[in-house]
Amino acid sequence: MKNLVKLFSVLAVGLFISVSAFAKQVVLVGTNAEFAPFEYLEKNEIVGFDIDLLNAISKETGIEFKIKDMAFDGLLPALQTKKVDLVIAGMTATPEREKTVLFSKPYFTAKQVIITKKNNNTLKSFDDLSGKKVGVMLGFTGDTVVSEIKGAKVERFNAAYAAIMALSQGKIDAIVLDSEPAKKYIANSKDLIIADVPAEEEDYAIAVRKTDKDLIEKINTAVDSLKANGEYDKILKKYF
Ligand code: GLN
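Above: the input record for the complex with glutamine. Below: its predicted structure, written as tokens.
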């Protein structure tokens, strides 16, 4: 009898160990699904380049990602307070953000562009926005860029479509936004264009807490192999 109890406890411990060894690592992800083609809603589902990249990383690493949609300026606070463990949101790895989070290797290069009305295309550089009412999205890198232009009147919006509407209605003169989402936003509009002015390049990267070095290393390794085995290019082709 005693031996039977022993046998069962050994089996139980063994089972426990194997279950924990095979249990998937679950990582909570924060994004802001208003940034096509990187993340946006399609039939109530979050889709986009970043989501496909995340799914491919999941296949490489075995990590299970659970995605939560939230306001862009709430993403890094949510990471710090452990409401999420990882942020992927077309987020630019800026030196300012690098003070508080750990970024992966860059996975996409972008830049800021100016959206303006077709009949108002006199803009040759960001400095030409001086004296103009310029729409930006709260907390985006475009906000930082425009805030540094002397004489520009910054108008902060919570959503890009609201800024686009204000521009169409002539309430503001221009919008500064990331290049790819800007193209998407003006695609359906007859009166707006992109003034492609010289701009610094920005690198999008995945963010985790400073203490999660292991996680970011797994992600970097996975992204490297996705680039080497052609999967990354497939995702790129799908969206661009
Ligand atoms: N790349 C910009 C930033 O990091 C905008 C990102 C976004 O809106 N998702 O601020």
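Notes for the reader.
The first helix runs from residue 2 to 22.
The longest strand covers residues 108-117.
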